[in-house]
Fold this protein.
Amino acid sequence: MGLLHDLLFDYTLRTVALGSATLGAVSGTLGVFAVLRREALLGDAISHAALPGIVLAFMFTGSKSSLVLVGGAFVAGWIGMALMRTVTRNTRIPPDAALGIVLSVFFGFGLMLLTFVQRRPDAAQAGLETFLFGQAATLVQGDVLVIGVLGFASLATMSILWKEFKVLSFDTDFGASVGIPMRRVELILTTVLVLAIVTGLQTVGVVLMAAMVVAPAAAARQWTDRLGSMVWLAALFGGLAGVTGAVLSSTTTGLPTGPTIVLSASVIVGVSLAFAPRRGLVWERIRARHRRSAIRRDTVLADLYALYCQHDDIDRGHPLPVIEAMSEAKEGAFNTLLALESDGLARLLPDGVWALTPDGRVSAEQRLAGYQPGNTP
Amino acid sequence: MAIVGPNGAGKSTLIKAVLGLVDSAAGQVLVHGRPYEEQRREVAYVPQRETVDWDFPTSVLDVVMMGRYGDLGWFRRPGAREKHLAMEALAKVEMEALADRQISQLSGGQQQRVFLARALVQDARVYLMDEPFQGVDATTERAIVQVLQELRATGNTVVAVHHALQTVPEYFDEVMILNVRHIAFGPVDEVFTDENLRTAYGGRVSFLRSVSEPSTGTGAGE
């Protein structure tokens, strides 16, 4: 109850939670398109490329207001993104290499500028380095307003251009062939992606921001087969990771926000990978096991039936070793017999031998009726 | 009309150049006598099905409705009318029962029919298809051929990149033989000759063709 009370009434905590939730939801939403277009790492390059923009914006204006810094980040991130596209389109350098080049060059330049600024004698620059790993505790109401307005603009653009973004992500060439200007749509999509990314930098930091783009979308994909619900889920997951991480880090001293948010997101991804129905690993295992035991059941039933046919006596039992020798899955034969027994298809006779029940015989005959040698039953 | 030629001959590139997806080095594209840019509505495109990610989170119906996006224009979302048209197109390729399927659950042939339905829903007059018969089962091949014949019967033009030479005379009226440069173009019984094919494919093609089509395959061009 204490935490809930603080979330609602404590100014700092409320601000931090609200800001982180919003940026998590926005970057998660737009991340869906980045992930589906196989450009998940674009977010990484954009966020790293934003660093020099932040420092330059500060150097030129001397201001640390979030609007100024986010503006600088946006310009630098956008230039980095445009540069990547230009390089990929006009040279033989593949996209991943272009991405690597832009990321490291811009980030290196940004670090250099940051070191240079920090050597200056005045204290005005203090706090710029929080952009590396993020510090949610520094969020004030004005920052949250900026995050909210920019986030709303990104999401509004997405919902207006929904079908254009969808066809861009699924089949760009086809979109162009029906007359949609795909290059312009792509430019708009990456621009709002840049916008979503730069608004998260103060909280999550340039180094880890990419995770907020990729993780919620990757987790959401596990739970649904519809683009619409994938977007809603990604927003939910992103928001949840944002709040959890930000609240944990601001209530614990010395815990940086970015890594905490990213870890929260990773937990969501981990759970989704394991437990999502149909796509989850756990269900996959369970299904595989079901299939295996169903096949084993049928073969053991068929074996018992073959023994019965040889002797034409339903009350004659057969010892376990015989059935094991016939069965392809030797170790499983006993358990399979027990399963058949509990279904009333096989029975254990007093002297420890196994036989079909009348029901078992009918079931085996039905199964074998559809069987032709060479076909699977 | 079929476009045939060996791998790397530029068949897909030709279609993409017509659609403006790759820049053409020279020349202009006319559709029914007017520039392609003005006639975009008249042209529908069926890409190779391997070009998209079939694990994309969407349904069969959604993909087919993408064929209406061009006519809808900016901002407008597909509604009941688009859904109705999409279902009609799906019925033509015998896929209406699978409308709500997630597209990753489709077989290769079903994927191809979804792409065909997406083009049909555009209600165009020229259909450009990139290997519509590539890797599909006999059911799908029959369904596609039936749709193509209907399109022809109602006065539309179908241009398809095609690989199985032995079915060219059966499926198509005209053929373009291509190997980097244009080798021959015209009615199948005039230009689909061993000589032209040998120019395009090298020596072994007459063997390939005469095995599968002994009656009409040999000597058609002499």
User: Anything to note?
Assistant: The radius of gyration of chain B is 18 Å. Chain B has a mean pLDDT of 79. The CA atoms of residues 14 and 49 of chain B lie 17 Å apart. Chain B touches chain A at residues 16, 19-21, 40-41, 43-45, 47, 51-53, 56-59, 62-63, 66-67, 69-72, 74-75, 77-78, 102, 104, 118, 122 (CB under 8 Å).
